[in-house]
Amino acid sequence: MNYHRYYPVDVVNGEGTRCTLFVAGCVHQCRGCYNKSTWALDSGLLFTQSLEDQIIKDLQDTEIKRQGLSLSGGDPLHPQNVPTILKLVQRIKSECDNKDIWLWTGYKLDELIAEQQAVIPYIDVLIDGKFEQELADPRLLWRGSSNQVIYRFK
Ligand code: SF4
């Protein structure tokens, strides 16, 4: 998996103080997408074991306490990203105490294939669906257009 940006401290992508990772790779081609540069799977930088370890360390940090991790992109549920994302979220839930995981995807929850569904039990908040320019509304919280649904699983 490749990624574009990692913010170790972020307060705009989800509730509370968070770590945020923007991954590479998205097939949805939404009109009006703000992150077109992330569409290609081979864009950005390689997501390494050392960055995975750093994210765990940042989430365990007791000086700047993070509420959790936000995963965006690109699409963290692009089938080619799923194995790496699954390993990351499993590690967070087993090694980091009480951290929530938010994930934005262009897929609809009820359309996920089995491999993508395997990630869902580790996600606390899922925002699903493509960005629809006709339904865009800057007043919406955590989503760009009103067709997108926020699922709070926990
Ligand atoms: S799902 Fe997100 S990153 Fe992908 S094209 Fe749509 S708005 Fe852009």
Provide structural commentary.
The chain has a seven-stranded mixed β-sheet, with helices on one face. Strand 1 and strand 2 (18-23) form a beta hairpin. The chain has a single domain (2-152), classed as Aldolase class I (TIM Barrel), CATH 3.20.20.70. The protein has helices at residues 49-60, 82-95, 114-117, and strands at 2-10, 18-23, 45-46, 68-72, 100-104, 125-128, 149-152. It is 19% helix and 23% strand. Helix 1 (49-60) packs parallel to helix 2. The chain has three helices and seven strands. The model has no long low-confidence stretch (mean pLDDT 97). The protein is an alpha/beta fold. Iron/sulfur cluster binds next to loops.
The ordered string of helix (H) and strand (E) elements is: EEEHEHEHEE
Strand content: 15-25%
Helix count from the secondary structure assignment: 3
Integer tally of domains: 1
CATH class: Alpha Beta
Main sheet? 7 strands, mixed
Distance between the termini: 27 Å
Number of DSSP E strands: 7
Mean pLDDT: 97
Bound molecules: iron/sulfur cluster
Let me know the CATH homologous superfamily: Aldolase class I
Q: What class would the helix/strand composition place it in?
A: alpha/beta
Helix content: 10-25%
CATH architecture call: Alpha-Beta Barrel
Please mark out the parts with pLDDT under 50 across 5 or more consecutive residues, or reply none.
none
CATH topology: TIM Barrel
Q: Compute the gyration radius: what is it?
A: 14 Å
Oligomeric nature of the chains:
single chain
Provide the spatial order of strands within the biggest beta sheet: 3-1-2-4-5-6-7
Protein name: Anaerobic ribonucleoside-triphosphate reductase-activating protein
Catalytic activity: glycyl-[protein] + reduced [flavodoxin] + S-adenosyl-L-methionine = glycin-2-yl radical-[protein] + semiquinone [flavodoxin] + 5'-deoxyadenosine + L-methionine + H(+)
EC number: 1.97.1.-
Cofactor: [4Fe-4S] cluster
